[in-house]
Specification:
The protein is of the alpha/beta class. The chain has 9 helices and 9 strands. A 6-stranded parallel sheet has the order 1-4-3-2-5-6, with helices on both faces. A 3-stranded antiparallel sheet has the order 7-8-9. β3, α3 and β4 form a beta-alpha-beta unit. The protein binds adenosine monophosphate.
Length: about 280
Amino acid sequence: MRVIEATEAAQTHVRERDTKSVLVPTMGALHRGHLKLIHVAREHAGKDGEVAVSIFVNPLQFEPGSDFEKYPRPEAADEKLCEEAGVNLLFRPRDMYFDDRSVYIEETSLSSGLCGAMRPGHFRGVCTVVAKLFNLLTPDAAVFGEKDYQQLAVIRRMVRDLNFPIEIIGVPTVREADGLALSSRNQYLNADERTQATVLYRAMTRVKELADGGQKSVRELIDAAKGVIASAKSARVDYVAIVDAVNLHSLETLRPNAVIALAVFIGKTRLIDNLRLT
Ligand code: AMP
């Protein structure tokens, strides 16, 4: 596995590369969710292709007062996991941004609700860093998790609208046995909070049950989700929404292609998840 830490070295590497390349962008603290993405990347790259993983805790996507400083950065363990997973290139840039940078990429429709409404500037930071990674590593394809449903939609839109010649591959969410979606932020949870964190999945599956049983009122469904979440003493709802799977508009009445998306604080830790309802 080759490790590159400078943007110029990345550009030299891609000029000399003559294989198909598939990129998995991450912020590190790798877990089985990331490993699934790496596995899917290998399937798409082929055995002789390049699987590239980027690890960069992107300051631009953390709003002021959030967890940028304390975000876990277990570099040696991440490098070992990448090596063992058969990654060909680990890109861990140390010089990503110019101090006087003045160009950003902003998606203006899909980013406006859900996490975008709660985290101003977040998707501008995501789009800007992903566009930079695409330019630096020029992958043929890139793999993203459905765990970050809005992010995947926003990236697909950026690629479409700006004509990046890159295939975007979505991968279903990897969960613990009790339904909790794997996340680097789960390690912030103490034992009691970890138990309570199952409330996100329990709320979503309750809503799916009601939807499968014929409940079409989104207000009723969201109230049911909030009722489940209220049963966990350390849980505080950031948002619960039922949206169209493609344009992410909020629905009033359930119809095909609906997704429930939620963000819930468990203590100080903000967790997000989503589930297809129809
Ligand atoms: P992150 O390091 O949290 O920025 O995530 C990097 C990529 O891994 C994103 O495309 C995420 O959607 C994806 N990802 C994170 N957690 C999971 C999970 N539990 N299952 C599948 N993909 C995930």
